[in-house]
Each structure stands twice: as C-alpha cells, then as structure tokens.
Task: inverse folding
C-alpha cells in the first residue's frame, strides 16, 4: 500500500459547519477535522442531514430531493447553511446559502455567488445508498456524473454546455412548432460545433478516469472486471451533422431532437455485457464507489461525503473502501449507526461526532 498522504498538508477542507433551520437538525455549529470525520447515530437522528448541509453549501441544492423547500425546517421562516473553508495554509473563505420566503441567496467570499461559483470553490463527491443508480439508473445519471467532473477540470465546459443547451432548446422549439426544415436546421451549425466539443471532452474524461477506476476497483473487488466507454448519443457510422440531417423528418414528427450529445451515456460493461441488470446491488455500490473516487482524485482532491457505507457491503469490501478513502488524503465525512465497526477498519483515529434527535456533538474518545 502507498504511504498515506499527510493530513497536515490537506488541500481544500472544511473548518466549520454552521446550519440553522435544516430538516430535523438543531442549530448546528461544529468544527470537523481535515481528515476522516465519522458521524454516528441512530436511524433518523440526522446523520444524512449533516452531509446534506455540506452538499447544499457546495451545490445550492440537495442530493436527496430536487425541492429546496423540503429541506427547510417546518415552521422556520428561513434556513441557512454556511461553511468556513481553508485551502492550503492561508486561503480561507466562507460560502453557503440562505433560503425561505424571500427566495434564495447564495454567498461566497463575502459576495453574491452563482451555483457554479459555489461548486467551483468546493468540489465534492457523494457515495450514498442511491449511488447504485450510476450503474442501474437512467443515462442522464451517468451523463451528469461525467459532466460534473468536466465542470471541475475543463474551464470552458460550463459556458460551452450552456451554449449547447440553448441551441438545443431553440431547435426543439422550432421542431415543436412545426417550423419549416430550414428554420430547424438554422440551429444545426451551433449544435454540431458545440456538441462535438462536449463529446470530445466527455471522451477524454472517460479515458482519464478509466485507469484510476480500474486500479481502485481492483482493490475493492479483485474478481470484478469492468470496462468503461462512451455512447456519444448518435450512431458511430455518421457524424453529428449527418445524423441531424438524416433524422430531420423523424425529429419533426416527434417534435424534439432525438439524437445528439444530450443522449450520451457512460457505458459500464462487465464480461457478459452491460453491467446494468447483470451485477448485484453490492457490486453496483462498489462500481459506483470506484467511479466516484476516481472522479474525486481528478478534481483536485474533492471532499468525499459517504453515507451509510456499510449498507449492502460485508466487512471485507467495506474495509477495502475505507482503506482507499483513508489513503486518499482528502477530507471525508462518513456516517454509520454505530462507530465500532467502521472505526475498527480505520488505521488512525477519526474525528467522531454523535447525532441524537438532531443534535450534533463531538463524541468522547473511545
């Protein structure tokens, strides 16, 4: 095993977590460590809600629901999450958001911010019981996974992605209104130029994560052989421009663009074919964990939020995941119903927090 990275030289890490009016949590104000943070408590105590506050301050949305209003505490006029963050030894800032009846307000480094600016400042990845959807979910789940990594490693990705989506929306509007073919095709040049650039970046991303993914998966489950590839969203026999022309009448009949980068998918295959439907739930979780850790390593050491790791994994596979996480050198937040099983898998003592009835407190040393 490689030497464990020093926590003293941690990259981006959270020094303080503050939250008020979030789900069942009491007012939260804790100072996590720069390495492994273990969050323990019974079911429904608020462990996942603590992870959710971190995610909210990075993405301005929840990883549990698409409705921000559902995250706010019932009866609370407003909800707030804020993180004090450190990068290196001297760069410190605060970021987060407030939402409620007056709308949503995002802040970073003392100024108004966009969701993209929050995400850029604090890269993070999530491993949760729902992570299996990376394997057995819809293509948009895997497409979003690729695009999140691109967002952090390719500075031109976000404006190019918005350019593509705008052109696609305009083309679809023309298709839906029954506009003449020339009006529809007026958007093809932008769609092709932008779409081919996005596709090249996605292909590069798949290539970049394949080797670390295979190395991580080999450690997690040596008998599980998985390959990665990219489905571009159209036939490999044609260019994107040819595809749009070839299927113009079909698109006009359906009222939307049926082929292109917006239909792309990350191909995950085992020896017998597509992994979806061919591997167990536990194997899905291991594949998803390997993908997530490979992506995190390429995003400048993104913070890892790991919810209920022990679900559907035996001690051997869970221990393999914990070992890789501990040796990643990044800040990690792990949840568990009890500290003993996970703590026994760690090579060094973590920071431990106990959650009970929404109250989060540092736990006494074991």
Result:
């Amino acid at each position: 095993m490689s030497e464990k990275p020093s926590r003293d030289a941690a990259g981006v890490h959270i020094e303080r977590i503050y939250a008020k009016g979030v789900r069942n949590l009491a007012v939260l104000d804790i100072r996590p460590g720069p390495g492994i943070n273990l969050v323990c408590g019974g079911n429904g105590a608020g462990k996942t809600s603590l992870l959710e506050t971190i995610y909210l301050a990075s993405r301005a949305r929840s990883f549990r629901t698409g409705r921000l209003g559902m995250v706010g505490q019932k009866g609370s006029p407003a909800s707030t999450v804020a993180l004090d963050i450190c990068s290196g030894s001297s760069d410190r800032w605060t970021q987060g958001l407030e939402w409620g009846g007056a709308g949503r307000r995002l802040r970073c480094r003392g100024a108004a911010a966009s969701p993209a600016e929050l995400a850029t400042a604090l890269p993070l990845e999530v491993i949760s019981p729902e992570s299996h959807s990376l394997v057995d979910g819809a293509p948009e789940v895997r497409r979003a996974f690729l695009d999140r990594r691109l967002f952090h490693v390719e500075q031109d990705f976000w404006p190019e992605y918005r350019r593509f989506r705008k052109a696609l929306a305009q083309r679809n509007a023309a298709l839906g209104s029954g506009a003449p073919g020339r009006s529809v095709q007026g958007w093809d040049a932008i769609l092709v130029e932008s779409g081919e650039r996005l596709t090249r970046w996605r292909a590069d991303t798949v290539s970049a994560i394949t080797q670390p993914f295979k190395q991580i998966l080999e450690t997690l489950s040596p008998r599980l052989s998985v390959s990665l590839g990219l489905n571009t969203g159209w036939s490999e026999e044609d260019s994107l421009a040819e595809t749009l022309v070839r299927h113009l009448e079909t698109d006009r009949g359906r009222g939307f663009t049926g082929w292109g980068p917006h239909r792309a998918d990350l191909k995950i295959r085992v020896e017998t074919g597509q992994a979806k439907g061919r591997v167990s739930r536990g194997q899905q979780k291991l594949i998803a964990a390997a993908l997530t850790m490979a992506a995190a390593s390429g995003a400048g050491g993104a913070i890892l939020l790991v919810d209920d790791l022990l679900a559907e994994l035996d001690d051997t596979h869970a221990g393999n995941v914990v070992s890789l996480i501990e040796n990643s050198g990044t800040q990690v937040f792990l949840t568990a119903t009890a500290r003993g099983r996970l703590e026994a898998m760690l090579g060094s003592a973590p920071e431990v927090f106990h959650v009970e009835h929404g109250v989060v407190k540092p736990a006494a040393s074991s």
About this structure: Residues 171 and 184 are 5 Å apart (CA to CA).
